[in-house]
Structures are given as structure tokens and as C-alpha cells.
């Protein structure tokens, strides 16, 4: 029972750390930055965050760069006729004035991180530079969460 309490305390601490950090560049606010841990041998994960544009004009997330990965692809996820599709967002993701865009499990936008140079373990920090068309660049840390974080399980019934 004691080891369960320690694991729970560590997990809560990691999640609280990710939720507590907020980054700003101009009118853009980036919060709740995290990535999922990778199983042994995997070199792909996803980056998650909430981006809010507090300004009077739209901006666009053009790219995400990471030294620890070969590529970060901005993708749009859609479901049509029971077929899941991923479409590359070559022009990035628009963040309208006064609006928020969320990269999270199940959301339409995904930041897929591939070619990781090392496995990601819970508690690791993965530095990433977000490139905005108007606001410029901001460097954030994606705090690595345990495998399965953010997933919703359904009994199918």
C-alpha cells in the first residue's frame, strides 16, 4: 500500500507541474504542456498543450522544433465514414484572436513527435520551440507523463 501511495504522489506531482507552467510570447499564451512517455524501443510520441491568443488579431503556429527529435508534424485528425484520417497541416494551425486551440488526446489537432533520440520517462522534460507567424518563437518544456495519461477507456456499452 505504501508503494502505491508513493507512485500516486509522484504522478500527481508530475501532472501538477505540467499544469502549473505557462509560457508567453506577445499575446500568445502556452499552457498545460506535456508529452506521453514512450515504451521501450519506441521513437514516436505526441506533444500536448493549450494555446490561447489574447491579442486582437489571429496568429498561426507554423512549426514545433525539438533537438531531441527528427521531426514534429502538425496534423489534423478527422473521422469520416468510420475512417480516421490524418492530414498534414503544412501551413500550421491558426489561433484566432481571443480563441484557444488545444493539442490533446482526441482533439482535432495533433503534434506528432518522431525520431526521438532517447526513450521518454515520466518526469523527463522535453524542450520544444514553438514558432508563431506573428508573435515569434517561444521555448517550452513538455513534461513527460506516464503512458496512458489522457486516454479515456470505454466499455463499449
Task: Give a description of the structure.
It is a single chain. With 157 residues, the chain is mostly beta strands. The chain has a single domain, classed as Sandwich (Immunoglobulin-like), CATH 2.60.40. The chain contains one helix and eleven strands, in the order H-E-E-E-E-E-E-E-E-E-E-E. The chain has one helix at 2-20, and strands at residues 22-25, 28-36, 44-53, 59-65, 71-80, 83-88, 93-95, 100-103, 109-114, 125-132, 136-145. Strands 1, 2, 3, 4, 5, 6, 7, 8, 9, 10 and 11 form an eleven-stranded mixed β-sheet that branches. A hairpin with a 3-residue loop joins strand 10 and strand 11 (136-145). The longest helix has 19 residues, at 2-20. The two termini are 32 Å apart. Residues 3-18 and 153-157 have low confidence and may be disordered.
